Task: structure prediction
Amino acid sequence: MTAPSSPEAPWPVRTVARKIADWIGRLGEVWVEGQVAQLSRRGGAATVFLTLRDPAADMSVPVTCHRDVADRPGLELTEGARVIVRARPDYYVARGSFSLRATEIRAVGLGELLARIERIRKLLAAEGLFDAARKRPLPFAPAVVGVITGRDSAAERDVLVTARRRWPAVRFEMHNCAVQGPNAAVSVIEGLRRLDQDPDVEVIVIARGGGSVEDLLPFSDEGLVRAIAAARTPVVTAVGHETDTTLVDHVADVRAATPTDAAHRIVPEIGEQRRLVDNLRARSRHLLTSRLDQQDRWLESMRTRPVLASPDRLLHGRLDDVVGLRTRARRTLVHRVEGAERDLEHARARVAALSPAATLERGYAVVQRADGALVRDPAEVADGELLRVRVAGGRLHVRVDRSTGGEDEQP
Amino acid sequence: MTDEAGPTQTYEQAREELGDVVRRLEAGGLTLEESLALWERGEELAKLCQHWLDRARERLAAAAPADGAGQD
Result:
């Protein structure tokens, strides 16, 4: 064999190259799956060069193959295609380059791709990444919206134009990147990380127009799905047409049907909001006013209640009482006086009945001597004595004259 | 009857008490002095209620100039 190398006896390049080639050549044949990142066919050259990339990691490996392997009928070898390659590690001594020398290339069929997506979906669903409880609410009117789209794409225009029309104050933080092909998932993840770290960005939109199932594959990338799940900022996806469902749609906080729909979801419509506010304001004012009116009416009804409105009524009954009592008192007194008057009258009548006047009326007379003593016997008076006679009609004076009469008679 | 200082009462409290005063006055059976005192209290409460309602209207009116500014 070859002697060990030393500064005094270095190996020539060819020796090193052959040794490496030998060692690599002893590695066995492998089946490897990846995504075609680059494809170059040089004119009529017999060898086709391609770069096979791992869709989930930033790693790739160069692959070479004979033109016939690449152009096998039925194989559509394009950049971005998923392929399974049967290859042997190979060292090209002429250039010192490493590659996988492919002897067979198979496209990963659509059915296979979808089945794989479905497996990833189930796995992530089992982890709870798609749970409704994980969905974060979108901010009401975000000041800054992060947007991840292809540069100058229709999706970008739809999002920006629609969102600005609805809410003119909205600002955007853009991240333009590849949205299909082998680098799409990685560059979307990169944009997501950047926007998520920006404290001003309140919501992130990932938008892409429609495309073939293969075109949309990056949006079912497990790494991207996990990145969205890990993001602190709410994420809205609008990928493909409404009928296309990619895994990012499952993990997104809101899945919009189209980029235009995404714009509707992220910002409110300013006119609508104004009307809403005006309407609420008018309603609250109206409610308050009618409540006040109602209270005014109630208060008015209280104030006009007789007990409050005319406090003098409080006295009414009482005044009547006083008047009544007074009247009764007066009446009682009058009765008394009248009774007394009647009693007096009776007494008077009795007095009158007992007085001598009535006897005098009948023609009797009372005779008195000058000193007023009553004369009951003729013997009591002297001849010629002056006497007073009282009759009913009045008094008269008489003189006793014994010469004219006989003997004084005894009654 | 309550002897609360007027302004410390809310509208609802004043209103409730006013209703009570009127009911008691209407029910009667009070001494003259009692009913007079009750009537005075009622007047006071009615003024207080009016005061609250007037204040509320003033505040509503103060907000009015903003009305219509939002129309476009």
About this structure: Residues 313-354 of chain A form the longest helix (42 residues).
